[in-house]
Amino acid sequence: MKISQIVCQILRGRSVEAKTASCQDVVLIRVRTDDGLEGIGEADASPEVVKAIVDAPFSHNIACGLRELLIGENPLEHDFIRQKLYRRTMYFGRTSVTMCAMAAVDMALWDLKGKFFNQPIHRLLGGAHRQTIPAYASILFGKDGKATADIGRKWREAGYGAVKFGWEPMGQSEELDIELVQGAREGVGENGTVLIDAGCIWDARTALRRAQAFSQFKIEWLEEPLRQADVEGYKWLRDRSPVPIASGEGECGREAFRPFIDQHALDVYQVDLSRNGFTDAAFIRDRVEEIGARLCNHCYTSPITVAASLHWLATCRDAFIFEDCVEDVPMRNDLCTERIQAVQGVISVPNGPGLGITLNEEFVKKHLVAESK
Q1: Which residue, 60, 86, 183, 247, could crosslink 149 as a Cys pair with Cβ 3.0–4.6 Å?
Q2: Domain, as residue range, for 181
């Protein structure tokens, strides 16, 4: 069995809003073999940039597009392929968006492998520790404390025991920051779990002051208070914060996670399968479990990454909660024929072959804006 075709498709809705939220567009990687199998994957990055990385022609031995490197390879040899792609893209890859493109390819290879062996990916990764995982509703803040409280109540009434609020308008002032978190706690209630995503907005000392102020509201974690690359800042903050510190969603590949893990810089390591793929995510899982920290998925994209995240997180020994994006957008809800969403705050791990999902080809056709083969 050999890889015979790499299809890269860009899907986009009618309009793209000015907000910090993925899944307004999607880039799909479809790996096809000479005997008719297909695996699908997704990258969370600028779709046109990912497509360019896949389509790029040969420049020289360590600056080559992914398609040219993949055609003719055995799709079951995922680790060999990962090392080949990593080396042959050294001049424009290593920890960049190239790793996102590689992650989409890797996701597709594991989907294809699961279909070949007629097994779910979590079994091929070593086995699931659980078939259901508590989920938190992942949503943006409201414009103020009252609006945020209303959002919290909405998702608690929908059955979620935990809600995460993120990004804008946090960071405008200390007064508004505290008001937003207070509103989150009021909306979710005393018995619910509140998670706060700051959106990379403070220096370390300001973040510590906010962590101290937010601790009265008993938040489960404070996510990305600093710039994503500030490893030393995260280590400093984590050692002093009264609340757990989470980060990792922007990291692409095992090399990007290494300094955070080596320095024990986080309490919760958030791994996005659409930026890491299964091969690197499994490596990161083992390293994080080795140091006794916690793991969670990051996922704010389509059901492809939702399914991938479930397969991976189910294999994590101490998985305790799953990020479930609840934004009501077509790419999130209609791209696959299956609806993968929590029911009463609990989400189930797919058990079909590979990712265990099926693309809605009519939806793909309707929203297709670019394709290369």
Answers
A1: 183
A2: 124-348
Asked if residues 265 and 293 have their Cβ atoms less than 8 Å apart, the reply is: no
What's the alpha-carbon Rg for the chain, to the nearest Å? 20
CATH number at residue 94: 3.30.390.10
Write down the pTM of the prediction.
0.96
Cβ–Cβ under 8 Å, residues 274 and 242: no
Cα(146)–Cα(337) distance, integer angstroms: 36
The answer to whether 214 and 233 have CB atoms below 8 angstroms apart is: no
Task: Give the count of domains, the chain.
Answer: 2
Burial class (CB in 10 A: 0-12, 13-18, 19+), 239: exposed
Residue with tokens 């008719």: 36
According to DSSP, the β-strands at 162-166 and 193-197 are parallel
**Would you list the DSSP string of 323-363?**
EEE----HHHHTSBSS----BTTEEEPP-SSBT---B-HHH
**Mean pLDDT, the chain, integer:** 96
Q: How many CA atoms lie within 13 A of 188 on its CB side?
A: 29
pLDDT in tens, 144-176: 999 999 999 999 999 999 999 999 999 999 999
Is residue 289 within 8 Å of residue 317, measured between CB atoms? yes
| Nearest residue to 165 via CA among 87, 329, 144 | 144
| Residue 355 is assigned to a structural domain of this protein | no
